[in-house]
Amino acid sequence: MANSPYFGIAAQFETPEALIAAVRRAREAGYSKMDAYTPFPVHGLSDELQFRDERVPIFMFLGACVGALSGFFLQTYTNAYDYPFNVGGRPLVAYAAWVPVTFECTILFSALTGVFSMIIMNGLPKPFDPMFNIASFARASQDRFFLCIEAKDPNFVVEDTTTFMENLGALSVEAVPR
Amino acid sequence: MAYQDIDKVPLIEGDQTFSSIDRIIADVPLQQKRHNKKSWLAPTGVAFIFVNILMVTVGWLLYQGIGIWGNNIPTAWAFDIVNFVWWIGIGHAGTLISAILLLMRQQWRNSINRFSEAMTIFAVMCAGMFPLLHTGRPWVAFYWLFPFPNILGIWPQFKSPLMWDVFAVSTYFTVSLVFWYIGLIPDFATLRDRATNVPAKYVYAFLSLGWRGSAKHWHRYEQAYLLLAGLSTPLVLSVHSIVSFDFAVSVIPGWNTSVFPPYFVAGAVYAGFAMVILLMIPVRKMYGLEEIVTMKHFDWMAKITLATGLIVAYGYSLEVFYGWYSGSKMEHSLLVWRMDFLHQPYSWAYWSLILCNVLIPQMFWSAKARQSWPCLIIVCVSVNIGMWLERFVIIPMSLMNTYLPSSNRMYYPTIWDFSMFFGTVGFFIFMMFLFIRFVPAINVFEIKDLLHKLHREKASKTEEAVATTGGKH
């Protein structure tokens, strides 16, 4: 249902275990486009949603490589080529002395890549999201666990999905306006 | 206070639920009226006076130059570098708690990591002021601190440990800051959703970046957070190692010692943990956080303080051994200069350091001392004084004793040295109190996660008990 007036149907649960069980049943019922919202990271939830994304670690590794190379290049270029300065006949490309700065650049680039790639891939900052349309969603950051089956799911039919979710043992089921 | 068996003290006391945790921690910054009491206003006000003293000192320093300090030749490094190393060291406990204990899956870190990370950030700010102002004119010092193409056509010298220091400290500050902020994003979302006051809601909504706790977001978040912890661990070890290279790489007697890097790192953690304990005692009392930060946390922090203190004591004994074993006349004369309490003017600093850092902390061997507020406070204050004295003994005292005895000259700090130091202490305390007022001082979502895990463990233990007894009770 691509042109539904709703973003999806959200159900509210009291415990992480109830949410995980609900996700499993929703998946078994053939739903695939859904997301869960929790106040803290619940282990096993992303596996249950069959969501896997390894890009953050990969980007961080690439960031580390770029950091190491640029740190080493910075020192080689400035101290051996652009401004060679002979101190007591010591080698110009003194790579042993460049370990600390190379190391710090590795850490810095990798950490910043990790933080920014995480924020950007999560689509943040995003001041508004349809989920904020339901008043009870304020508790998703406090003590309630939400499951939302989205309207873009091929099996999504407002009435059927609502009935299905009501049978999952949720505290409440609400339609989320767009 | 009665002595408790620490194994029986839980990590979270009382009958807590997710919403009771929100009430205990998240409501501290939301209920602003709670802070308008003497317990918040008095320390903040006193600290603010010291912030002003700091500003006056810095103003006079920039106008007059660093001649207002007691530094001279040969003692070109004195209070400024002592304070720099001391502050950086205090910051290290924060990263140790937040990163190393996370990698080691130490669940007790969750109650104290936010607080000690904040401490790290403010301590590094205080530390950074000293070398920057030691340049005298920081705004013209940039071309030799940071590599950027300048009209003089010259570049910094990367073979110098001072350049390593610039990179280490600035990386440390940046990474600590993003690590801290990442940890705060979900908590800002909680504050946004709990706030009733509209401006507060907007501010926290802005800071939370629109976080909504999606499982997909948490998935990436946890990857990034764990890897950041993995990066911070070698980083924190490298920072104080590099700080110690400033000394160890030189040929000054008393500095040229290969034990410096591990000994400096242990000393940093030592002072840092002492500072966490010292600040946590009043804050926990003031804001009713006793159920989240329990006696167990203090007991374990005291144990880490004791362990790192022993490493530091080993470092002191090695310094003496190296001095003697080197067979160098200069190293021998340095030992006499430090230790001969009958003739040498600054030997009191060395012996007070031994008293504060080696003797007094041995109290922590006793479980009763680790659980007594007066003992915790006495030991932690003495450790912080001791660590400051350690840097004083190492830095200016080694410089006063040169290879050319005719150049030896006494160093005496001036009033401006002291006003700058106590000014940064005031700045640090001022920032900590602002932090407690506007930001949740304990990580809300991690405590909820911990609570959930503890409940699950308890449930599975009851199940096991039921299974082994055949369900007879």
What does this structure look like?
The complex is a heterodimer of chains A (178) and B (473). Chain A is an alpha+beta fold. Chain A is built from 5 helices and 4 strands. Chain A has helices at 16-28, 45-48, 55-82, 99-121, 158-166, and strands at 6-13, 34-37, 145-150, 172-177. Chain A has a 4-stranded antiparallel beta sheet with strand order 2-3-1-4, covered by helices on one side. In chain A, helix 3 runs antiparallel to helix 4 (99-121). Chain B has a single domain (6-147, 160-453), classed as Formate dehydrogenase/DMSO reductase fold (Up-down Bundle). The two termini of chain B are 36 Å apart. Chain B is globular and about 80 Å long. Chain B is built from 16 helices and no strands. The longest helix of chain B has 34 residues, at 161-194. The mean pLDDT of chain B is 89. In chain B, helix 4 (113-134) packs antiparallel against helix 6 (161-194) and helix 4 packs antiparallel against helix 15. Chain B is mainly α and 473 residues long. In chain B, 70% of the residues lie in helices and 0% in strands. At the A-B interface, strand 2, helix 3 and helix 4 of A face helix 1, helix 6, helix 8 and helix 16 of B.
In the CATH hierarchy, the third-tier topology of chain B is known as Formate dehydrogenase/DMSO reductase fold
CATH architecture of chain B: Up-down Bundle
The beta-strand count of chain A equals 4
Q: Return the structural class of chain B.
A: mainly alpha
Through-space gap between termini of chain B: 36 Å
Task: Count the domains of chain A.
Answer: 2
Task: Quickly give the CATH architecture of the largest domain in chain A.
Answer: 2-Layer Sandwich
Measured by DSSP, the beta-strand proportion of chain A falls in 5-15%
Q: Would you kindly provide a brief summary of this structure?
A:
The complex is a heterodimer of chains A (178) and B (473). Chain A is α+β, with helices and mostly antiparallel strands and 178 residues long. Chain A is 43% helix and 13% strand.
